[in-house]
User: Fold this.
Amino acid sequence: MAHEHAIGGHAGHDDHEHHGPPSGIMRWITTTNHKDIGSMYLWFSFIMFLVGGAMALVIRAELFQPGLQVVSPDFFNQMITLHALIMVFGAIMPAFVGFSNWMIPLQIGAPDMAFARMNNWSFWILPVASFLLILSMFVPGGAPGTGWTLYPPLSVQQGMGMDLAIFGIHLLGMSSIMGGINIITTILNMRAPGMTLMKMPMFCWTWLITAFLLIASMPVLAGAVTMLLTDRHFGTTFFNAAGGGDPVLFQHIFWFFGHPEVYIIALPAFGVISQVIPAFSRKPIFGYASMVYAIAAIAIISFFVWAHHMYVTGIPLTGQLYFMYATMIIAVPTGVKVFNWVATMWKGSLSFETPMLFALGFLFLFTLGGFSGLVLAITAVDILLQETYYVIAHFHYVMVAGAVFSAYAGAYYWLPKWTGYMYDETLGKWHFWLTLIFFNMTFFVQHFLGLAGMPRRVPDYALQFTEFNMISSIGAFGLGISQLLFLYIVLKARKSGKKVDAQVWDGAEGLEWTVPSPAPYHTFETPPVFEGGKH
Amino acid sequence: MTDEEMRALRARNVRTALILAGIVLVVFVSFIIRSGYMSGG
Assistant:
């Protein structure tokens, strides 16, 4: 069993030397403290999760029955686009950036992030960018109706809402790039003495590699939307065949960013799961080194598989074969990770508190999403399933059961450390089971809809799809309402939760558990000496 | 941590960040230039 000891620099001892946080709204606007900024990221992401979720419910309300029921087809398309952009860039990514802000300095024994002021900018850019995205609904022509992929020629032809979305994406990209630079610098330069890279907690490893993915892929998206902007307003023809350009070129560039983006979301989720499962199995993670190599392999391969999103664009057969096999290879390192998580639990002293339940939910359902991904990787199958609800089902198993379940696992796991109070375990379990049941009710049936040929991004459908759509819509509303329970659980913990000690979970290991709960405003001003961390 | 150590850490952090920002700039510009060539210059 691994043991970490923090010698010196214990957080509680540093407090007397420092002022506390200023009071009022200025604390939050001007803060450079990684814990404050982490909290703001987490609250912001939850608010955006509810906004994006409300948009999903508009979509599901429209699809409850065939025919046009609730919204116009144009507005339906706008909801499709904004739901995706807000969930990906406003909810899921900021949630894991929030975890990184809170936990990376605590886990590596650093006093704060390397660039504290830049950290503040990274956060405050986000609400402005999200405001631009939402504002696009209220300008002539409305929000983009292109889907989050923003394919030309439609995206070149759309109204002013597209410009707002492009500026919003630019700002979101800037925020992510600044965050990525901050995380890499912090991890490379500010680890406590004794903490070598191969002794780092797995969550920090996943974020180090994710930050490199951000650095390499976000400028590609920024380039793509910049070219869209110049095509729209400055007479260039990057994506216009009439001027020698090519709309399919945009797809190549977008997916060169888009596929690593999936792993920008998934890798930190893997990191959280790699903290939670050992803690509730009371065993160190199985195969630490292989986990690190698997994360690196997934990240590298993710740059070489982009055209599996484009099998029907007319790429040559040899290209299709290459992208099919390259995509399937990703299953190998991913399989290593799933094997290691299961092997960590093997003969462990398991207990099933809420974080562990969400981690197990992740393990089953993310693996299922991975399998449907393998199905879609097969070119011949994908040509049939392209643009059907099978694709929707697949990526929601990856994004919701993968990323969101992992975020909940992390939130319940670290909430007592952040607040100093324990959440209501019974309510936490209710939250898990309701989420699990309603999630599957919403998305499992969509596999059948897709296999039967129901197209996505269309507000109407043929009569034979009605029953499954009704089940899916009822599940979606249940899933949405269940998430309000999480808000209640957090507020209840803050108001009347039981106080907790520094070591909240008996099986949890790492420097974060050596500081009091709640973690003091300033921690590790004197670097702790890290001993142990044998994996 | 002494003032000197703090200054050295800050200098190292800035160096690291500048290298990373350079990578970002190169990726951004090179994708646009390459796309320009591919779409007929």
